[in-house]
Design brief:
Elements: E1 7-8, E2 16-20, E3 26-29, H1 30-39, E4 43-48, E5 55-59, H2 61-78, E6 84-89, H3 95-110, E7 114-120, H4 129-143, E8 147-156, E9 159-166
Parallel strand pairs: 2-5, 6-7
Antiparallel strand pairs: 1-4, 2-3, 4-5, 7-9, 8-9
Helix pairs in contact: 3-4
Organism: Clostridium thailandense
Protein name: Translation initiation factor IF-3
Subunit structure: Monomer.
């Protein structure tokens, strides 16, 4: 993030500043540093105003801000967002239906998305959560070569939830 709160030119209140840039740093009066910046048609910027004496640099501040914003824009463009896709199963799901859902999960994992697999238990099914574990085992046997378990199966209320992440290449 760009720090636009840097002290510039006349806003620097210290009597002396440490001027950095080039190969060495020197301590000079603020007036001299301002005069040097004006001669070069640039700004005197307090990089570290809390230091004693404050650390300053002579630079073209508007160009600096422009380059910083370009860098941030480039970083945002290169950022990869990971979506979580959800697949819902039921405890009484048939083998072919598991195969279809597993194919969908495989597509999601290949496009580098995480997959949240959930089983909802209703009524009496809540007493037979071990059936849900068997359904997850069958599902994982079909998706296991592409995905890796990020969060193991856990019962939360009436739902059993498992999160898969794509395997690293």
């Amino acid at each position: 993030m760009i720090n636009k709160n840097l002290n510039l030119n006349e806003n620097i209140r210290a009597k002396e500043v440490r001027l950095v840039g080039g190969e060495e740093s020197i301590i000079i009066s603020t007036k001299e540093a301002l005069k040097m910046a004006e001669e070069r048609n640039q700004d005197l910027v307090a990089i570290s105003p809390k230091a004693d004496p404050p650390v300053c640099k002579i630079m073209d501040y508007s160009k600096f801000l422009y380059e910083q914003s370009k860098k941030e824009k480039e970083n945002r463009k290169n950022q990869k967002t990971v979506d979580i896709k959800e697949i819902r199963l039921s405890p009484s799901i048939e083998e072919h239906d598991i195969e279809v859902k597993a194919n969908n999960a495989r597509k999601f994992l290949q496009s580098d998305n995480k997959v949240k697999v959930s089983i909802r238990f209703r009524g009496r099914q809540n007493n037979y959560t071990n059936v849900g574990n068997k359904v997850f085992e069958i599902f994982l046997s079909k998706v296991g070569e592409i995905g890796v378990i990020e969060k193991p199966a856990r019962l939360e209320g009436n739902n059993m939830i498992l999160i898969l992440a794509p395997k690293k290449h």
